[in-house]
Amino acid sequence: MTAPREWADKDFYADLGVSSSASAEEVKKAYRKLARENHPDKNPGDTAAEERFKKAANAYDVLGDEDKRKEYDQLKAMLRSGGFGSFGGSGGAGFPGGFRTTSENFDFSDIFGSGGGPSGGFSSDGGFSDIFGGIFNRGGGAGGTARPKRGADVETDVTLEFREAAQGITIPLQLSGDAPCSTCHGSGARSGRPTTCDQCRGTGFVSEQKGAFGLSQPCSKCHSTGQVIEDPCPTCRGTGTVHRTRSITVRIPAGVIDGQKVRLAGQGEAGPNGTPAGDLFVTVHVRPDEVFTRTGDDLEVTVPVSFAELALGGTVAVPTLDNHVKVKVPAGTPDGRTLRVRGRGVPKRGGEAGDLLVTVQVQVPKDLDPAATSALRSYAQAEKDSGFNPRSGWAGAK
Question: What is the pTM of this model?
Answer without folding.
Answer: 0.55
